Amino acid sequence: MDVKKELIIGFAVGIIANTIGTLLYILLFSGLGIVATFEAAVQQGHVGSLLALGAILNLIAFFGFLKIGRDHRAKGVLIATILTALVILYYKVF
Q1: d(C-alpha 32, C-alpha 37), whole Å
Q2: Of 20, 46, 62, 88, which has fewest CB within 10 angstroms of its CB?
């Protein structure tokens, strides 16, 4: 399969895993709804922490792809994780 396509698939999996991880964290550990929790996180400056906790699922995707020999997909997940880190940095600085 084409390397570029494999990277895009891995990137998409990384973004989806991060989103699902963030939503799972909110549903499991927050007494508020999804929107209310996100709004409270924005007001209190905790969006970065919320995103970082959601990125934990990227570890599973990354090592899962490495285990089955899909190295380029793992690189895509890594790129998505780095993008998440840059978004977190943005929220921390600004």
Answers
A1: 6
A2: 20
